[in-house]
Amino acid sequence: MEIKEKIQNLSSDIFAEIVDLRRQIHANPELSFEEYETSALVKAQLSGLGIPFQDNIAKTGVVGLIEGELPGKTIALRADMDALPILEANEVDYISRNPGKMHACGHDVHTSSLLGTARILSQLKPHIKGTIKLLFQPSEERLPGGASVMIREGVLENPRVGGILGQHVMPFIDQGKFGFRKGIYMASADEIYLTVKGKGGHAAQPQNFIDPVTITAQIITALQTVVSRTMDPRYPSVLSFGKMIANGATNIIPDEVYLEGTFRAMNEEWRALAHQRIREIVHALAKSMGGEADLEIRLGYPVLKNNEELTARARAAAASYVGEENIIDLDIWMAAEDFAWYTQEIPGCFYRLGTRNISKGINHGLHTPLFNIDEDALRLSTGMMAWLAIQELEGEV
Predict the structure, then answer these.
(1) Class of 188-301 per CATH?
(2) What are the pLDDT digits (tens) for 174-226?
(3) CA–CA separation, 21 vs 347, rounded Å?
(4) Active-site residue, selected from the candidate residues 88, 141, 337, 375
(5) What is the pLDDT of residues 278-332, one digit of tens each?
(6) How far is CA 328 from CA 105, 174, 305, 316, 369, in A?
(7) Is the pLDDT confidence value at 396 over 70?
(8) In this structure, which of 173, 211, 281, 322 has its CB flanked by the most CB atoms within 10 Å?
(9) Residues of the chain with CATH 3.40.630.10
């Protein structure tokens, strides 16, 4: 029996168990760096498979190690474990038991799928050329990102990892399909915190005060030129403000206005230049209108760049597993992912698992209270990652 057929059979055999694991994780979501129960479940599963692991990495992270019986390089497979602070609205038996917490980004799928992949690979050691690290990572949803902490604590060393694969659900791709993109794929994401200070007083006498609301309006408008007139149009970019608090009234000019926003870019050099321009505009405008500004640009995740060669190999291997007709070439995505930290260190491929099924009403977006998946995707998610890992270690597709 060919190795691909073995993987497909094993994936089918464990399907029901992986669905149960996914539902168990989904019903017990934990926020970033609080994934204690999820981590315990992962360790119990790895122990049951006889897979050695290290724990307490980046607080709740777990790293399993599968050593093949044939010599070769080392690659890593990554799954994130944390949930989001969202009140779930799905009507399912496995709805979140922790009100205000929800697996609305599919990390329950990623964790259960990688556990399934571990089951498959643990039975295929005679076919594995090299070593596979299983990275069960905390805190993808919260800065600085669990990936950066895990890297700092040495998960890419001993043995040194030569490449990494990450699988993520995508509710805009039908179940049964996978998406790949070589090169730049996802944006950097920085957080902007801005306080514009003036001098408040009675709104009927604006001449006696310094209106921070007016200053803020000018700043927001002017900052849009950072994207429309400073940026090279070849590089997509987004600057948006989603929160503004003035705390005045119809007849009260407040002393200050507080804003929060996000800046996203697809080029690291432009990202740095944009930060400089944002600072210049904010401080110059506030000063020119008699006010002051306190600005913090909190660095988030970098640009996610899929390695060209690794991604080409992975795409070809995926096509040989499910057929070329089930492979989609992805467009750029302005969301951010802390998997990008890995791609800053080693070659990486971050690909998408289709989970949509319109006929079942499963088509809600990520980070929403109604997000869910067609669980038939779990028939493919486990085997696909096992297949990609073995083919990458094999060195051919």
Answers:
(1) alpha beta
(2) 999 999 999 999 999 999 999 999 999 999 999 999 999 999 999 999 999 99
(3) 30
(4) 375
(5) 999 999 999 999 999 999 999 999 999 999 999 999 999 999 999 999 999 999 9
(6) 20, 10, 18, 12, 27
(7) no
(8) 211
(9) 3-185+303-394
Whether the bond into 144 is cis, omega within 30 of 0: yes
The answer to whether 163 and 346 have CB atoms below 8 angstroms apart is: yes
Q: Which of 94, 301, 321, 351 is catalytic?
A: 301
**Structure-token pair, residue 164:** 């990494």
Q: Is 301 assigned a catalytic role?
A: yes
Residue 235, pLDDT score: 86
- Radius of gyration for the chain, computed over Cα atoms and rounded to the nearest angstrom: 24
Bridge partners (DSSP) of residue 67 are: 131
Burial class for 37, CB neighbours closer than 10 Å (0-12, 13-18, 19+): middle
Q: Is residue 80 within a helix (H) or strand (E), and if so which, with residue range? A: strand 70-80
